[in-house]
Amino acid sequence: MKKYIKYLLLFVLFLAIRVKADYSSTGIVPNYTTIPRGDTITFSIGNDYLWDENLILRDSEDDTDLIGELVKNEEGNYLAEPIYVVVDEDVFDIDISENKVKDSNYILVDYKKRSIDGSKKVYEFDFEIKELGESDDVNDGYDGVIDNIMVSNLKLNVSEDAKPGVYFIEVFRSYDFDDTYENDTYVKEYLPITVLDNDENEKGISKFTINTVSSGLIEKKEYNIDIEEDKFNYEKLYLGDIDYTNISCNSKCLVKGIGSDVYYDDEAKDFKYTVKYADNTEEKYTISNLRNKISINYTWAVDYGRSIIYISKDISTADSTIDKMLNYMPNFNNGYERYIYDYNKLNEYDKEVLSSLNENIDDTYIYVIDGNKIVYEHKGDLLDEEYDNIQEEITRRTELNNIDSSKISNCTDGKCSLENKDENIDIISLIKDNYMHIVIGLSVLIIILLLLITIIKKSKKNN
């Protein structure tokens, strides 16, 4: 009995580690992140930590089989998951002719290039690993540095005809790469590269942005930092998890710390960036989040859920108003969190958070949020006859939120109707878009069920 419980715990532990590993990071290390068109960036590909077994392909045709046997070739080398690097077709080209594999345990065995829809180039790097390192080599957490380099001295050539702007180098492990390159739910790491019209050798930075994501009302947002000459420390209020950050220079430079989560320490309260120019001079920048100055609970802004928000200069009737609202919301009367804000006590940071609901709060405002959408809003106190309309309005706006915008028509005075109000949900598309999560969940349940059945049978047999 104890033996099987041990196996079950080991499996759960392995699965937890594997999930962390899939979301941990394979990325690139470049020598420049801002570069004039027609120039070349030298870069390496590697992982944020060393755990060889996590890189090995398994023998199942089903990518979601996390416990299959590790695959070896005839020479006895382990086959590693391919690494995919995706760049813009008209901007970048990768040259591997001078590549170097520093670690003798790794073998770069193949390299493939193809185009997708004429807009993206996909480069596939196939590796073999001679021997497995110990799992004790795993680093604790992310340190913002790609420690384990698999191949270096790759060249990223920037086209002479590239338009100035910010582009992204995207990096996938095979487990997360969709050959159609259409599914944004897969895990990827990406590094912004700024292409300049020319290199004027003017030091300093031209743009500083923080891009965040969340499952709440503020789904995705770009925060821009106002750059001041000779200023190196900045403060900004931003909400949600950092998707990526970017610093663009006025001239050729390397910025350490920008990009998605592989490139920075997500435990840090202050994010620090080192900007190194072509002449080897450096500048250091720090950005601090002003989130600690918010005095209100703003969970609805960043976390998925159902919320009723009441903002007023007089909140004496807030609870009774919400209670009455819920009586008129039979289809949605479960799981609502209450957020009641006394406008007189809000500070400037509170108001900045609430600006995602309304830029100018000058009266009593009531909002109902379902997930990351506002499904009801009202200005002023609710009159008795207005309660009857709450459920109808929530139902209407929920339908509009759940239907593709191309299927919405007849919009007048801010109100829209659906082309086919009774249209059924496309279950097939829903399953197709989420099949990875569904299969993994079912696989885990089946394995746990089989283990429990085995435990019960063994126990009965022993008795």
What can you see in these coordinates?
The protein is built from 7 helices and 24 strands. The model is unreliable at 1-24 and 405-436 (pLDDT under 50). The strands form 6 sheets. Strands 2, 4, 5, 7, 8, 10 and 11 form a 7-stranded mixed β-sheet that branches. It has a 4-stranded antiparallel β-sheet with strand order 1-3-9-6, with no helix packed on it. It has a 4-stranded mixed β-sheet with strand order 14-18-17-16, with no helix packed on it. The radius of gyration is 27 Å and the shape is globular. Strand 12 and strand 13 form a beta hairpin. It is 20% helix and 35% strand. The chain has 463 residues and is α+β, with helices and mostly antiparallel strands.
Summarize this entry quickly.
By secondary structure, the chain is α+β, with helices and mostly antiparallel strands. Helix content is 20%, strand content 35%. It is globular and about 75 Å long.
Topology:
Layout: H1 2-23, E1 26-30, E2 34-36, E3 40-47, E4 78-79, E5 83-88, E6 92-95, E7 106-116, E8 120-129, E9 148-158, E10 165-173, E11 189-196, E12 205-213, E13 220-225, E14 233-236, E15 241-249, E16 253-256, E17 270-277, E18 282-289, H2 299-302, E19 306-312, H3 318-327, E20 336-342, H4 348-354, E21 365-370, E22 373-379, H5 390-402, E23 408-412, E24 415-418, H6 427-433, H7 435-462
Parallel strand pairs: 2-11, 14-18, 19-20
Antiparallel strand pairs: 1-3, 3-9, 4-8, 5-8, 5-10, 6-9, 7-8, 10-11, 12-13, 12-15, 16-17, 17-18, 19-21, 21-22, 23-24
